[in-house]
Amino acid sequence: MSGNDTGDEYDLTAVTDGTDESLSGIAHGRQLNAFVEAVIVRDREAVDAARAALVESMDLDAMVDAAATIAAFNAFPRIADATGIPLEPAKADFTVELRDDYDLNALNHAGV
Amino acid sequence: MGHFATVTTPIRADLVEGLDAGWRHLTETGSWLTGVQRAEIVTAARAAWDCAFCAERKTALSPQSVTGVHDRSSGLPASWVDVIHRVVTDSGRLTEQWCQDALATGLLEDEFVEVLNVAIATTAIDSFAFGIGTQPPPLGQVHSEPAARARTPYGVPGVGWIATISPENAGDFVDFYANDSHFYIRRALTLVPEECREFWKIANVLYLEDPRVHELDGVERGISRAQMEFLAARASMLLDCYY
Question: Among A55, A63, B11, B85, which residue carries the largest CB count within 10 Å?
Answer without folding.
Answer: A63
